[in-house]
Amino acid sequence: MRKRSAFLTCLYLPLWLLIPPLFLAWLPFHLYRCFVRIVAWLFRRDLTTILTPSDARFSYDRIYTSPITSMVSTLEVEGEVDPNHIRETWRKQVLEAKVGNRLLYPELGWTIKTFMGHPFWAKSRIVEDRVRFIPEDVTPEQLLELQISLTFQPFKEGEPLWEIVIVRRKYDPTVAPSSLVIFRFHHTMTDGNGVFHMFRKMALPQSKGKLGKKETCTIPPAMNRSPVRYLGMPYDFVATCREGSRSGCLVPDTKSWTSLGDNFTPSEAASHLRFHICEPIPFSRIRQVGAQHGVTGTAVMHSAILGAMRSSFFPEGTPHSATVMVETNLHPPWRKERPLGNNITKGNYTAPIGELDPLKRLIRTQEALKEMKKSTFPLTRAILFYTLASVPRRVLQEINKRQFGYQRIFIGNLAGPLDKPNFCGYLAKDVFNMTGFYVGYAGLGVVLITLGDSLRLGVFASRNLLPRAGQAEEIARAFVRELDDLQFANQLQQCIEM
């Protein structure tokens, strides 16, 4: 062993002494969960299987009265679609798709029941048609109202936790006719990657090589390091949490904040949501700016988001040293066993929101992202969330309530196919997501979705964090301005030097 490795081993080992008491504190919950599984197997044969911890962490939601963790994904396709064709393709390509003798997406035929404090999958009542067509054409305003309604609409007990709604855009002579296929899923069933997996299954014709093929998660660079690096997991975790506690807030004064309470209605939840989904941006522009400055496209998007946040939340300026905690999604280092389900962990980094110079902010953001990927914090966080999600549903609800005042920015990046695919034989034009998660959460969410060369940016938060009317749209417009600043930064610098 090298001297440096021996020194690091001696440095890291003391903090591991905290692990045994933490394990002993968690063990009773784990044993109770195992006991519940045995009792369910003996006496509740209607229950299929207990939810995995990664799925169970979304089960605290009031699924059958007023859900806030539903995902509404809208796929726009060219022309007028045949609802019966989509219904039949969905049945053959998705509902009845198999790998060997097993269904590829069994969750689509399940619902959730709670037994002894833990959520279980159970076979849902047979519903003949979960694909419905709205014959009236919709305007952009009516489409928005429909998406909001679906986001907070309760699911019916005993029925599957998904549905598909098909609508047509109202005729506009200035644009080509198009239709919208709206997918609604509860987050316990799948994440954004699972939704894209089903989108690809609806392509016609299907590629033989892709049918039934298992997906695996990309292993972050930190997971390929030496065993000594793993010894530093507690230190990385503590250090990242300390940085987060020292970072600033987007809204320092929270005295006027209001929470939804325990018995809110869907309309009350909808009234708390502030959001805006921008028009498509060419993703080639992001690549061009990244290549121009020698950074990744991810760094370009994150830096532009930070600049947009600074101009919206601190229009009168903020200290140069001001920082804010940013969370972003990463793939965990274990194999993905099923196409649906939740298979994402998060990495954290301290972002330089106070940096006024766009180029300096871009470089600092790139360095912060590199350090985040080197850290073992995402792995530790995944294990911690897996552990906490093993507790009963009531305890999980209390844990989520405690996070209400924790302000941070979450940037989710969902990458679609590089070429715009066909969907049931129709050319896919665009895709965008809606979520109500942020009405019960003090963070601000920025969702980035790419499809072909099209990038969509969505800004989501509660009215506590975005109190001004149109503030979410203001942030989206500022994002585009920040891209302009980065694109022409070199030219401006050359003009100044001349």
TrEMBL record:
<dbReference type="GO" id="GO:0008374">
    <property type="term" value="F:O-acyltransferase activity"/>
</dbReference>
<dbReference type="GO" id="GO:0005886">
    <property type="term" value="C:plasma membrane"/>
</dbReference>
<protein>
    <submittedName>
        <fullName>Putative diacylglycerol O-acyltransferase tgs1</fullName>
    </submittedName>
</protein>
<dbReference type="InterPro" id="IPR009721">
    <property type="entry name" value="O-acyltransferase_WSD1_C"/>
</dbReference>
<dbReference type="GO" id="GO:0019432">
    <property type="term" value="P:triglyceride biosynthetic process"/>
</dbReference>
<keyword id="KW-0012">Acyltransferase</keyword>
<feature type="domain" description="O-acyltransferase WSD1 C-terminal">
    <location>
        <begin position="341"/>
        <end position="486"/>
    </location>
</feature>
<dbReference type="Pfam" id="PF06974">
    <property type="entry name" value="WS_DGAT_C"/>
</dbReference>
<dbReference type="InterPro" id="IPR045034">
    <property type="entry name" value="O-acyltransferase_WSD1-like"/>
</dbReference>
<keyword id="KW-0808">Transferase</keyword>
